[in-house]
Specification:
Blueprint: H1 2-39, H2 55-65, H3 76-92, E1 103-105, E2 108-110, H4 120-141, H5 145-176, H6 181-187, H7 190-193, H8 202-215, H9 227-230, H10 240-265, H11 274-277, H12 283-309, H13 317-347
Antiparallel strand pairs: 1-2
C-alpha cells in the first residue's frame, strides 16, 4: 500500500505541475501582449472574452485549425518530432522544483515536488542542454537555409551561455554545499525566511539571469529566430500546432527558468515570517501560502523577461559571442575564486 500511495501522490503532483505549467505558459502569451501594449501606450487584446482573457484559447484554436504544411524536401520524421522534443525538455525541468514544504493529508507527509534527487542542479543543466536538439533538428530537417542558420545560431548561443551558467552555479554550490533543490530551498528558511542566496551570490544571480535569457532565446538574445534577418529562424517552415509547440516551449522555458531563479536565489517558497507562522497557523495553510509566494516570485521574473523584450534592442551576433566568452566567463571565474576565498575564511 505504501508504494501504491506514493505512485498515486506523484501522479497527482505530476498532473498538477503539468497543468499549471501549460496554463501559465498559455497566459504568458496574453500577458506579454498586454505588457507590450502598456509599454507602447496601447490597449492590447480586449475582444476575446472579458478583458481579452479568452485570447490564449482563441490563439490555440487558430493554431489547431490552420493547415499543417510540410516542405516537400524536408526530413519528414525529424521535422515532426522536433517541436515535441522542444516542449518535452521545457516540461522535464519542472520535475525537481520544490513548489512548497510538505502537506499533511490523511496522516501522510506529502512532498510538493515531483522528485527530490541529490543532483538536481546537474539534472537541470543536463536537460537544458538537450533543449537545443529540438531547435537544431527542426532547423536542419526543414531543408531551408534560414532555418539552418537559425539552428546554428541557437546551438552556438546555448553552448556559449551554458558555460557561464554552470560556472555561476559552482559558486552557489560552494555556499550551499548541495545540489538538491529541496535542500537549497530549505536552507534559505533561516533568519525566519529571509536567508536568501541573493545575499551571498549577487554576481552569480546576475550571471544566471542573463544566461536564462539566452537559453530561452529571449530578447536581446533572440538571434535564432531573428525575423529581421532570418524570416522566422529555425521555425520558418513550421505551421499549425507544430509552430505552436515551438512558440509555446519558449514560454514554458521562461516560466520554468523564473521558478528556478526564484528557488535558487530568492528563497523559493520561503518568505519573511514563515517559521513564525508555522507556530500560529495550521501546517497546510502555511505551505499553501508558501506555494503562492513562490508563484508570485516566478510571475515577477516572467514580467521581467517581458519588460526586457520591449525595452532592450537585439544584440548583433558578434556582440552576443563577445559578451558570453569575453565578459561573462571571466566574471564567473573571478566570482568562483572570491566565493572560495570567503568560504575558506569563514570555515576557519
Amino acid at each position: 500500500m505504501g508504494l501504491e500511495a506514493l505512485l498515486i501522490e506523484k501522479t497527482i503532483i505530476v498532473v498538477i505541475v503539468f497543468i499549471v505549467t501549460l496554463t501559465i505558459a498559455a497566459y504568458s502569451t496574453y500577458g506579454e501582449r498586454k505588457v507590450a501594449a502598456f509599454i507602447q501606450d496601447r490597449i492590447g487584446p480586449n475582444k476575446a472574452g472579458p478583458f481579452g482573457l479568452m485570447q490564449p484559447l482563441a490563439d490555440g484554436m487558430k493554431m489547431l485549425m490552420k493547415e499543417d504544411f510540410v516542405p516537400q524536401q524536408a526530413n519528414k520524421f525529424l521535422f515532426h518530432i522536433a517541436p515535441g522534443l522542444s516542449m518535452l525538455t521545457a516540461l522535464m525541468v519542472s520535475a525537481v522544483i520544490p513548489w512548497g514544504k510538505t502537506l499533511m493529508i490523511g496522516g501522510r507527509s506529502i512532498s510538493v515536488q515531483v522528485t527530490d534527487i541529490n543532483i538536481g542542479i546537474l539534472y537541470v543543466l543536463s536537460v537544458v542542454s538537450l533543449g537545443v536538439y529540438g531547435i537544431m533538428i527542426g532547423g536542419w530537417a526543414s531543408n531551408n537555409k534560414y532555418s539552418l542558420m537559425g539552428a546554428l545560431r541557437a546551438s552556438s548561443q546555448m553552448i556559449s551561455y551554458e558555460l557561464p551558467m554552470g560556472l555561476s552555479l559552482i559558486a552557489l554550490l560552494m555556499v550551499t554545499g548541495t545540489m538538491s533543490f529541496n535542500e537549497i530551498a530549505a536552507q534559505q528558511s533561516g533568519w525566519n525566511g529571509m536567508q536568501w542566496n541573493i545575499v551571498y551570490q549577487p554576481i552569480g544571480f546576475v550571471l544566471f539571469l542573463v544566461c536564462a535569457f539566452a537559453e530561452a532565446n529571449r530578447t536581446p538574445f533572440d538571434l535564432p529566430e531573428c525575423e529581421a534577418e532570418l524570416v522566422g529562424g529555425y521555425h520558418t517552415e513550421y505551421s499549425s500546432m507544430k509552430l505552436g509547440f515551438f512558440l509555446f516551449a519558449e514560454y514554458a522555458h521562461m516560466f520554468v527558468s523564473s521558478a528556478i531563479i526564484s528557488t535558487l536565489y530568492f528563497g523559493g517558497y520561503n518568505f519573511p515570517g514563515i517559521n513564525t507562522l508555522y507556530h500560529i497557523l495550521p501546517h497546510n495553510i502555511v505551505t499553501l501560502i508558501g506555494i503562492g509566494v513562490l508563484m508570485i516570485k516566478t510571475l515577477f521574473f516572467i514580467f521581467l523577461f517581458m519588460w526586457v523584450r520591449w525595452t532592450i534592442p537585439r544584440f548583433r551576433y558578434d556582440q552576443l559571442m563577445n559578451l558570453g566568452w569575453k565578459r561573462m566567463v571571466p566574471i564567473a571565474i573571478v566570482n568562483i575564486i572570491i566565493t572560495a576565498g570567503v568560504v575558506l575564511l569563514f570555515d576557519k
